[in-house]
Amino acid sequence: MEDDEEFIDFYALLQIDASCDRSMVEKAHRHLAQLYHPDHTETADVDKFQDETRAYKVLKDAKRRAEYDRL
């Protein structure tokens, strides 16, 4: 994460606890991705979809998640 970048709480974004396992991360991602995906006309939100996807990519990977948790 760059120094000038605003910190985003990925756990809050995915609405999960920091102690959850990878399967819960994936479940939260699937739910929110469906909700915010640009193809879902009623609830589409490109910014939220991109933030959620970024959070998922970090939290699903054990090494990246550990690095994030040290921030």
From TrEMBL:
Domain J: 9-71
Name of the featured protein: DnaJ domain-containing protein
Record bears the keyword Transport: no
Transmembrane annotation, as ranges: none
Record keywords, A-Z: Chaperone, Cytoplasm
GO cellular component: cytoplasm
InterPro entries noted in UniProt: DnaJ_domain, J_dom_sf, Pre-mRNA-splicing_ERAD
Subcellular location: Cytoplasm
Any GO BP: spliceosomal complex disassembly
Gene3D superfamilies found in the cross-reference section: DnaJ domain (1.10.287.110)
Statement: the UniProt record of this protein carries the keyword Signal: no
